Model the fold of this input.
Amino acid sequence: MDEQSSLIALFTSSFLAATLLPGGSEAVLVGVLLAYPDLHWQALILATVGNTLGGMSSYLIGRLLPDEKTVLKKAGGNARGLEWVRRHGTPILLLSWAPLIGDLLCVAAGWLRTNWLWALLFIAAGKFARYWVIAVAVN
Done:
C-alpha cells in the first residue's frame, strides 16, 4: 500500500473506530508509522481528526435523541451512565478515547445538550493524547 492509501485507510479506520461501530485504529496507526516513519505528524493529525469526527458523530446521535425527560420516562428513570457527564461536564470527554465508555460519553454529552464546541475541543484533546502516546511508543 502506498503512502496516500495508507493515510486514507488510517483516517477511515480512525473515524469508524470512534463511532458506535466496533473497531480499532491503533493497529493501523502503528502500521503506518512503521511503514512510513516520515509521515509521523501527518498520521497523528489524520488519526486525531478522523477519530474526533467519529466522536462528534456520536455526539450528534445523542443530540438527535428525544429530550432527556422523554428518554428518562421511557427508561423508567434509570440513566446512570449520564451521571458522569452531568457531574463533570464536557471535560469528561477527555476520556472519549477509552474503549467501551468513550462512545457512550459522546452520545451522553449530545443527549444532555452540552456545548458542541467544548465537546469538540475535549474530544479532540483526549484523542490526540492517546494517539500521541502510541506514536511516541512506536518511534
The mean pLDDT is 88.
